[in-house]
Specification:
134 residues, seven-stranded antiparallel sheet
């Protein structure tokens, strides 16, 4: 079952849009797989808008997917970047034997603060905070 999901996600990433990705993150172990695709989708008055989608699968047939959209400041003169946006989560978990299955969905809003000094060539420190209203 996990292989079918794995191939479905890889198929999604193998479209013509993959060349526009700012980052693709693939993490595979013997019991799980995680994929994250991120790209700048368009610029705006307040800064560029970043899109991210990701999926996590494991051998217990648990699935967690997310998608997010954030607007970030984009200043060349300032090494501090601020992003504000939201993220949508969906999880289908507890599918192993002797576990209680559950499906969960949530919308979270948050901000991200990055410090990337010019001398580090894009490397830096980032802190994120996401809040899900009740």
């Amino acid at each position: 079952m996990i292989l079918r999901k794995l191939f479905a996600v890889v198929g999604l990433f193998c479209s013509s849009q993959i060349v526009y990705a700012d980052s693709i993150n693939i993490q595979i172990s013997d019991a799980s797989a995680r994929f994250i695709y991120a790209a700048e989708v368009f610029g705006g008055q307040f800064g560029p808008t970043d899109f991210e989608m990701g999926a996590y699968f494991n051998d217990d047939d648990d699935t967690v997917v997310h998608t997010s959209l954030v607007v970030r400041s984009d200043s060349i003169d300032n090494p501090v970047f601020i992003a504000i946006g939201g993220r949508l989560y969906y999880a289908d978990i507890g599918n192993a034997v002797d576990q209680t299955p559950a499906e969960v969905a949530a919308i979270a809003f948050g901000l991200e603060l990055s410090f990337r000094p010019e001398g580090l060539y894009g490397a830096g420190i980032t802190a994120s905070y996401l809040y899900r209203p009740v």
